[in-house]
What we know:
A hairpin with a 7-residue loop joins strand 3 and strand 4. The longest helix has 17 residues, at 244-260. By secondary structure, the protein is α+β, with helices and mostly antiparallel strands. The chain has 7 helices and 19 strands. Helix 2 (83-95) packs across helix 7. Bound molecules: zinc ion. Zinc ion binds next to loops.
Amino acid sequence: MKWPNAGIRLGAAVLAVALGPAVGAQQSFRVGTAEAAPGQKATGYLEVPAGVDAGTNIPVVVVNGARPGPVLALVSGAHGTEYSSILALERVIADLDPAQLSGTVLVLPLLNIVSFEQKVPHVNPVDGKSMNRFYPGKADGTQTDRALYLVTKELVDRCNYLIDYHGGDLDESLRPYAYWAPTGRAEQDRISKEMVLAFGLDHIIIWPDRPTDLAATRYLDNTASVRGKPSIVVEAGHAGTTETDDIELLVRGTWSTMRKLKMLAGEPLLIENPVWLEKSVEVTSEQAGIFYPLVKRSAYVEAGTKLGYVTDFFGKTIYVARAPVGGIILHICAVPSMKKGDNIANIGVVAAKAP
Length: 355
Ligand SMILES: [Zn+2]
């Protein structure tokens, strides 16, 4: 997957055949109701029609560069209370200057508006579905399905690269990390690895063996990956906070990745020695009650370390959560509310060697 910068010298007819719809600048670019001429920034909405439930309008921004280049899609707020990632893309929208840009950037800063408005973590309150589990979406499903169908059609199908932004949700104390998901296609994997190293988060989870069925890709980044587009997932922020450090990590990572993709001038800042994690192991509660954590995000634990405990409402300990493996606490439950089967922590297991 390579953006042929020189290709723009070809005739327009040849270009259209060679590059399909993913041509960056030099012509206006429309997504939903947002249409930007070269050198312009435009705002609008992906209009999700009403169906078995209510319709919705998802804000979209098209930043069409003054010079030709690839199309990069940036999406946050699938989980509408992962606030740092949403505020990071608000910064990118404000600061990205189309006059300095080669190519086009498509930004969805807040996919799950009702989650944000109602402060409901993890799901779209309209239909109870996670907005990062039902790709590629369906034109005739519930609101989440219909929204994701439009995201696939309007963003994924039209971009060359994609970054999906997340973070710790309201109930998750999370340390920053990224996901890199190799596909087995060498050139695509080389580029996505360059993207994740350029983004600069210092812990990277290797995520192989993902769904390859085009009709059931589940996750946004995977939807782009199986369609041949290098993509990564980045996570920073935690438990409803909007700390400058977390937002800065995501904003600077975005600029650095765009430099690596030659969409902005300047050198990317590559992370040279990230901690590669071979998997993320989930620990869940076997009891409902009040959760008390005993470790913090980013702590290193060994197999058997007590992560926290759950009491009943009379103060009696009814469950002790221990680490099933050694590794780093990627996130730990940030609130006392605990149901049976809820997430207590995710532990990143350090890879024996870098990929
Ligand atoms: Zn998320």
